[in-house]
Specification:
Radius of gyration: 14 Å
Mean pLDDT: 95
Number of helices: 3
Number of strands: 6
Order of helices and strands: EHEEHEHEE
Strand content: 25-35%
């Protein structure tokens, strides 16, 4: 197994106790990604928060030599699922560029920090 830690995420393993990504048996497992800015503050605006969460996913994919087209499964966790679902799908569709892997959306009452509304977890196949 190989840990995937993009340069801007080097603080995650020692501070938070997890790897942003892990390669095992030809697959990349991406930990749930959130919409926080470079100072680790929650981005309040919903579309910007969702866009940043997806940007983090893309960064981890790239570090492992993958693109969004290599994603084989997506699980998302949503605070206010029904309220934000249409917006989330528009953001996701911009990022995924027509790629449509299996997706499971789960409504939750809260995420790790107040103000977070989405967490994105993916599995990709290493090309």
């Amino acid at each position: 197994m190989m840990m995937i830690v993009p340069p801007g995420m080097a603080h995650f393993p020692p501070q938070s106790g997890y790897a942003p990504g892990l390669v095992a048996n030809g697959f990349l497992f991406i930990a749930g990604q959130l919409g926080r800015d470079d100072a680790m503050q929650v981005i309040a605006e919903p579309e910007a928060q969702m866009t940043r969460a997806w940007r983090n996913v893309v960064t981890i994919l790239a570090e492992a030599g993958c693109t969004v087209r290599d994603i084989v499964d997506v699980t998302t966790f949503h605070v206010g699922l029904r309220e934000h679902l249409d917006l989330y799908k528009r953001v996701r569709d911009r990022v995924m560029e027509g790629h449509t892997p299996p997706w499971t959306a789960i409504g939750v009452s809260e995420l790790s920090r107040p103000g977070l509304i989405v967490e994105i977890k993916c599995i990709a196949r290493i090309p």
